[in-house]
Amino acid sequence: DMVVQLWASFAKDGVPSADQVPVWPDFRDDGAFMFISRNPHVDHHYEEEQMNFWLETVPTILAGETHDEL
Asked: Is the pTM of this model over 0.70?
């Protein structure tokens, strides 16, 4: 099972890898991530609009600042 291989290799070496899975990208500012599915692939900027809401808008609201998008 691919997911089991990914977890096992991550636990052993700190790098998730499995048969027929592309090289898992390092975490960087380019937004690369591994899309795990029947055909795993590297993609970029996972749900960018939703992520920006949680990473930018919510902290702004919690800090008491106003935000024009709301």
From this structure: no
